[in-house]
Design a protein that fits this description.
291 residues; 0% strand; single chain; 67% helix; disordered N terminus; mainly alpha; globular
Length: 291
């Protein structure tokens, strides 16, 4: 078969992995998908973080996405849109490798799903590097991690972890349920179809992201509390304390800060992720079944 030819569904059962399809192949496909997704969409994720920060510094108040982009690039330079991207790559590769390997194993066994989140250290460093003024505070991701550890202790990397788990479980359940359901409607033959994978992944991600935004806002507050000017936010200890601060200062609408950027970030992210994963998976399946 020529490398450029489409992969017909008749050659193998695409959903049923061949017996010689190894765990390493699955992990490589997952790592490729994670790095591709997060590297491409990192600037939008930075905008989401900036717009979710409670009580930002005067230079980090934005009226919308376009205003945020123009202000950041004008005041901080275009390169600031990728500050902290290394921490995401280091976290996303291993996380997605385990994520998709577990997904396939569980799906083959009982149809369940697992969570998709980076190591808490990588997540905290990423968001600290994304906030306004981070360039003056941190010169690199290693310095950022050391500074957070020295000033706030090891607990700073895990203060948002319960919230992250509370968000990740429903997000992943919603995303995979939607992805599988949309894929069945759009591609009933379950053959390799990049267009279907892209569209189903994007729609599934947008659906899950919209419903879990309140928990993402709480997570952002906890992960960026060390940079806050508000003493109450700096001392926030957990999910319920953070939620009460948001409710008191902004009302119920505060839980949907950054909803637009989150959906705009997640929709193409999950589309890229699923398309990349299914492409890598199809590649490994094809080569594992070649004589």
């Amino acid at each position: 078969m020529a490398a450029h030819e489409p992969i017909p569904g008749e050659e193998f059962d695409y959903e049923a992995l061949p017996s010689n399809f190894s765990l390493a192949d699955n992990m490589l496909a997952g790592a490729f998908a994670g790095i591709a997704e997060h590297s491409i969409m990192y600037p939008i994720d930075l905008l989401k973080t900036r717009m979710q920060v409670i009580n930002p510094s005067p230079g980090a108040i934005y009226t919308g996405l376009s205003n945020a982009v123009s202000t950041i690039t004008r005041m901080e330079g275009i390169g600031s849109m990728w500050r902290g991207v290394t921490s995401v790559i280091l976290g996303a590769g291993p996380a997605h490798a385990v994520y998709f390997a577990t997904y396939e194993a569980v799906k083959q066994g009982m149809g369940g799903n697992v969570g998709n989140e980076h190591h808490p250290l990588a997540a905290v460093v990423k968001q600290r590097m994304q906030v306004h003024g981070s360039k003056a505070m941190y010169k690199s991701i290693s310095q950022c991690a050391k500074t957070v550890y020295r000033s706030e202790g090891l607990a700073a990397f895990y203060v948002s972890y319960p919230t992250t788990l509370c968000m990740t479980v429903p997000f992943t359940a919603l995303q995979f349920t939607a992805y599988e359901s949309i894929s069945k409607v759009m591609n009933p033959t379950k053959s390799y179809d990049p267009v279907t994978h892209c569209m189903a992944g994007g729609l599934a991600g947008a659906f899950a992201a919209g419903l879990t935004t309140p928990l993402d806002v709480i997570k952002t507050l906890l992960q960026t509390r060390g940079t806050a000017n508000d003493a109450e936010i700096r001392s926030a200890k957990g999910l319920f304390v953070a939620a009460s601060i948001i409710k008191r200062q902004f009302g119920w609408t505060g839980f949907f800060r950054g909803l637009g950027p989150r959906i705009i970030t997640t929709m193409p992210s999950t589309a890229i992720c699923w398309t990349s994963y299914e492409m890598a998976k199809a590649y490994f399946i094809r080569h594992s079944t070649d004589p």
